Amino acid sequence: MRREPFEPAVFRVLISFLPLWMLVPSGLALAQSSAQRWAVLVGVNEYTKLRHLQYCVADARRMRDQLVAAGFPRENVFLLVDRADRQVDQPFRENIQDRIKSVLAVAGKEDLVLVMFSGHGVHLDGKSYFCPTEADVESPPTTMVPLDLIYRQLEASAARQKLLLVDACRNDPRPPGSRDARAHEQSLKGLSDQLKALPEGILALSSAAAGQISWEDDTLRHGVFAHYVMEGLSGKADAEGNKDNAVSLLELYNYANVQTRRWVLHNRPGYIQTPELHGKITGDFELGRRLAPPLAVAPFSATAARGHQQAWAKYLGQPVEMTNSVGMKLTLIPPGEFGMGSTVSAAEIDRLFPGGQVEWYEHEHPHHPVRITRPYYLGTHEVSVADFERFVTATGHKTTAEKEGKSWGYKDGKWQEVDGLNWRKPGFDQQSTHPVTSVSWEDAVAFCQWLSREDGRTYRLPTEAEWEYGCRAGTDTLFFWGDDPDAGTGYLNAADETGTPDGRSWTYKFNFKDGYAATSPVGRFKPNAFGLHDMQGNVREWCSDWYGGYTSTPVDDPTGPTAGSDRVLRGGSWSLGARVCRSAFRCGFTPAYRISFLGFRVAFSPVDASVR
Question: For a tag on the chain, would you pick the N or C end, based on fewer CB atoms within 10 A?
Fold first, then answer.
């Protein structure tokens, strides 16, 4: 019997649906509903009589994980792939047809059903087929799954929302042999024509125009068009669209179309691939809406802290840890809720850690819930001498201490204003890797303004709430490592048994040796659960807020009083004991204040994303 020639299908991804369905790969969520969600996912790499493929099983598995993460009950997702543990879950023709038939039969009228096929597709005798494991081009009616059968089953199903996702173009399915270019073109046109003959209510997103090849890539480990469809649905299509946290059909098509065409032009010279949208389109509509990861509600463990960071990094499409254009490292801090301030009374703090100013402890109260609703990046380390020197070299900035000719420093066993002290000469030896000191709040703000121009992001000082939340990293104890100050060995450079820069002993100190009489290189000590170093030691740090009392009510993203005379200082330093190195300790000084245990770290907000 004479058969029509065939080649790999032009169509890589077909999306078929009735009105109002919502697609939900990773990063997108279905509309809230009590309806059930079902999926049958088929991936075939290994064939008995056709060429093997590489990434179809990976596609099916990845889609399964995405759907489950997006709200599909795992028990409602049926995966048919090569070498499945159960015979019934292997991608043979009978198994595929039976599974699709049974799921469509049990789906209720409010349910969503998704059917995905990733593997070979052929066009023979005027009909298009999906190729299961045993597909034989000599016997398509008895060894393959007809496309029109799937159409009829979907149309007959009671389910209101139906999705068919098909990737049927990996390479020439025939065993090794000759290729006929004209036969290739005829087959592509035949399959393309049938795919365009869509039943009412179905739209098709095609990976290429008729006669074009749909490419796959070993680096992407997916089909190129499929990769960009997935990437677009994760939120990038919206990021290049109207930025309303939803991905619409036209946003997805535009994103996948541009990215696919660009990739082929760069990586397959001499070829073009132009995705197409088929079907009657009466207006754009939403495919899915991005939902932010859950709020990190303290207390939470170090493992949970890292998990929240990774979830937000994936949601934002940004790394947990990044290095900016001037070489500074920053760490992503996820939104969260924590108890800000101290749960311990001023009198109890004074008893536990004598020698402080009780009025400062009183300003740690009331202990109150605070929500940080937006992710932000915080400097992994304090700004170093080398960082600050780059800024000064580029701008010619003169610090407050340099302009006034003096700064506070440790001299003759006490703290006093000393002529000639500044960031270059803090009163002790420093290396370029040590944190910059003796800088005012005004100097720190000037650095942030320069860095914003240099790196193209809006840098700032962290708010006091951001600082304490980042420091605690999910803990509600006196220090981020617990309540025992002497368990902090290895975590901070503070006043300890190492002594002072002039060889004296500290009056109030930790009972261990950290090895540094003054500042230490940034990052020398162990980080907290968020990966931030030196939050409770090395140098104290400026925050953006004016200094004032706390409110007693829950607050979202507090920024402190609207005016004042002093700016907030947070954290401990190389010269301070346990009472001042606690997570809750706070005080304020004038914006022009500078001293040789005071520096800063920077922050920036990556996007306008929140858990609101």
Answer: N
Element (H, E) at 76: none
CB 76 within 8 A of CB 111: no
Token pair belonging to 401:
């201490």
| Structure token digits, residue 86 | 């159960």
Helix (H, G, I), strand (E, B) or coil at 106: helix
Q: Which helix (H) or strand (E) holds 441?
A: helix 441-455
Measured in degrees and rounded to the nearest 5, phi and psi for residue 224 equal -60, -50
List all residues 6 or more positions away from 314 whose beta carbon is below 8 Å from its beta carbon. Answer: 26, 27
3-state secondary structure of 359: helix
Q: Maximum distance among all alpha carbons in the chain?
A: 104
Q: Which of 462, 394, 457 is nearest to 602 (CA)?
A: 462
The angle subtended at Cα 157 by Cα 154 and Cα 162, nearest 5°, is: 50
pLDDT at 239: 73
Give the whole-angstrom CA distance, residue 405 versus residue 399. Answer: 10
Residue 267 dihedral angles phi and psi, to the nearest 5°: -110, -15
Burial status of residue 557 (CB atoms within 10 A of its CB: 0-12, 13-18, 19 or more): middle
pLDDT at 159 > cutoff 60: yes
Contact 444, 541 (CB under 8 A): no
Residues 6+ apart with CB under 8 A from 44: 53, 56, 57, 81, 82, 91, 118, 119, 120, 131, 132, 133
Q: What would the two tokens of residue 526 be?
A: 């162990």
Half-sphere exposure of 580 (CA within 13 A, CB side): 25
- Tokens 């139906």 sit on residue: 162
Q: Which pLDDT tens digit goes with each residue over 389-417?
A: 999 999 999 999 999 999 999 999 999 99
Specify whether the CB–CB gap between 495 and 537 falls below 8 A.
no
Q: What residue ranges in 92-242 does DSSP mark as E strands?
A: 112-118, 121-124, 127-130, 145-146, 161-167, 204-206, 216-217, 222-223
Q: Minimal CA–CA distance to 492: which of 474, 475, 516?
A: 516
| Other residues' Cβ atoms within 10 Å of the Cβ of residue 218 | 7
The model's pTM: 0.63
Rounded to whole angstroms, the Cα distance separating 286 from 89 reads: 33
Rounded Cα distance between 25 and 165, Å, is 12
512: left (phi over 0), alpha (psi -120 to 50) or beta: beta
Task: Identify the burial level of 530 via C-beta atoms within 10 angstroms of its C-beta, where 0-12 means exposed, 13-18 middle and 19 or more buried.
Answer: buried
Amino acid 203: pLDDT: 63
Q: Is the pLDDT of residue 25 over 50?
A: no
Tell me 479's DSSP state: B
